[in-house]
Amino acid sequence: MNSFSTNFLAVCLAQKDDIQVKFLDSDFERRTRNHVDDCVARLTDACYNPSQTVIKNSCILNNLRYFHCTDQSVVDCMHDVLEGIVPYEFQSLVDKHLLNLVENNVALHRFSYSLRDKNSQPPAISLPKFRIQAAESWYLVRNLPLVAALLSCLIHWTTSCQWALLKALV
Description:
By secondary structure, the chain is mainly α. Helices cover 41% and strands 0% of the residues.
């Protein structure tokens, strides 16, 4: 399975639009063994579009008796969460005007970093693409409530679903 822009999660069939309005795992359809096997069987069909399913080829490990990618799939915290979900949700806060980009960058610059975190302090946020490394993202999520205390917009986004998701990621 590979990551694509429309359907990008290995464990469920969520679309990018879905994850902006649904926040519970019960809201999503999980990938099943039958779904993956069906997609693999249709790989040679002319109408099959791998960007809709994230499945571009079969996995030889699925031929093992006690293994299937849908049963043993785990979330990669570094790539899926810290370098994927966190920047995406943070950018969403900015896009929805729940977080002021200029104020946030000033707060990040003025924040008192510990010696341990000096090398992991997040960069200034720039759009349209917010790129951040895993260590910087982990620092940002861990300290976001403290950094947010410096921001005047704290009240607006602490009540949002995105804020609840970021708190859950910590």
